[in-house]
TrEMBL record:
The protein's name in its UniProt record: Aminopeptidase P family protein
Keywords assigned by UniProt, alphabetized: Aminopeptidase, Hydrolase, Protease
Organism the protein comes from: Streptomyces massasporeus
Lineage: Bacteria, Bacillati, Actinomycetota, Actinomycetes, Kitasatosporales
InterPro entries: Creatin/AminoP/Spt16_N, Creatinase/aminopeptidase-like, Creatinase_N, Pept_M24, Peptidase_M24B
Keyword Hydrolase recorded: yes
Entry keyword Protease: yes
């Protein structure tokens, strides 16, 4: 992986040089990991004029981790002395000035005002510029190693969900089911959940961002589950909706079939070159045409990777187009207040038609099961 990390840093260095910055300070944790590997908590990356000037600055040594979970071995690491060690970002700014840099590009969207001022005070002759979301944009298109991590994470999530569906659900609380799912993720090799697991039953089913409660599963409920696994830092997502105990009611079948059709329309729109807003439109039009405008989610999907919510955004106002090898979710849903709702959520990778079209990573059945 050292060659991969070095190539990523080279691309960022070229971007900085083109913008007139001699050095860059990367402080957002996901961006540090992308460029330097699994660094100690709070570490920052100082990107110098050349690869020899690159430095990972940390307030503490890395804990014992598997080999694949360590910083790039080709990268120099400087650990700050003393308990706590001070602020690595402030120390890195001083080091940049000591290297002779006259400007330093920083991630202003991640720095607090106080931290930005501290950078200026430690190196007053250093001109601070905004790196913006340059690293986030580099992260959008994934290499096959990154996609492999997402694929394994999806397999873990599928396995955890499949085991839950084989257990007795009636009478158990949303909170209990969510905790069990997260335990199963870790049991099957995940670093942990990719985000807080959502389990909704009855009137809570299909509600976006629902936090599990002590409501118990009842016969005839819709049960919606949204979970994800983190594997080597990469996060995937899956969401499914089921009916509990009995054959589904007519209204449940109708609503489920509608959301399924919307989700399929969104998935089929995932081709390189497709406008992000057009993917959203493809799914949204199916639901709009059936009169469910008020119950829709604000976006159809989003990118995933080292964070669970990355670019691109698949929303009505989204700009830009999809590239190949971009993993995204497609997750339309409808929630009817007081009755519940349906959400179907998959993680896929955009692939050209010649390669078989979009690659589905989350493969748990989307059939409306009565559990």
């Amino acid at each position: 992986m050292s060659e991969v990390y070095a190539a990523r840093r080279t691309r960022l260095r070229e971007y900085c040089n083109a913008g007139g910055s001699a050095a860059a300070l990367v402080s957002r944790p996901a961006n540090v990991r992308y460029l330097a590997g699994a660094a100690p908590q709070g570490a920052v990356l100082l990107l110098g004029r050349t690869e020899e000037h690159d430095l990972l600055v940390s307030a503490g040594a890395a804990a014992d981790r598997p080999t694949q979970e360590r910083p790039d071995e080709a990268l120099r690491v400087q650990t700050l002395p003393g308990v706590g060690g001070g602020d690595p970002a402030v120390s890195a700014a001083g080091l940049a000035a000591g290297q002779g840099a006259d400007s330093l590009a920083v991630e202003e969207h991640h720095l607090t005002v106080a931290r930005h001022r501290a950078l200026g005070s430690v190196a007053p002759r250093l001109r601070l510029t905004n790196l913006g979301s340059a690293v986030e944009q580099l992260r959008v298109v994934k290499d096959e190693e990154e996609i492999s991590c997402l694929r394994i994470g999806a397999e873990i999530a599928d396995q955890a969900l499949g085991e839950l569906l084989e257990s007795i659900l009636v009478g158990r609380t949303e909170r209990h089911l969510a905790l069990e799912l997260e335990r199963r993720l870790v049991d099957h090799g995940a670093d942990g959940p990719a985000f807080p697991t959502s389990v909704g039953t009855g009137p809570n089913a299909g509600r976006p961002g629902h936090r599990p409660t002590d409501r118990r599963v009842e016969e005839g409920d819709f049960l919606s589950v949204c979970l994800g696994a983190t594997y080597r830092g990469y996060r995937c997502e899956i969401g499914r909706t089921f009916v509990i105990g009995t054959a589904p009611a007519d209204w449940q079948i109708e609503l489920y079939d509608l959301v399924f059709a919307a989700q399929r329309a969104g998935r089929e729109s995932l081709v390189p070159g497709a406008a992000c807003r057009d993917v959203d439109r493809a799914a949204r039009q199916v639901l709009d045409s059936a009169g469910y405008t008020e119950g829709l989610t604000v976006l159809t999907g989003h990118g995933v990777g080292l964070e669970i919510d990355e670019d691109p955004q698949l929303s009505p106002a989204a700009m830009g187009k999809l590239d190949a090898c971009v993993p995204v979710t497609v997750e339309p849903g409808v929630h009817l207040p007081g009755r519940g709702g349906v959400r179907i959520d998959d993680t896929l990778v955009v692939r050209p038609e010649a390669d078989g079209g979009p690659e589905l990573l989350t493969i748990t059945t989307k059939e409306l099961l009565a559990l």
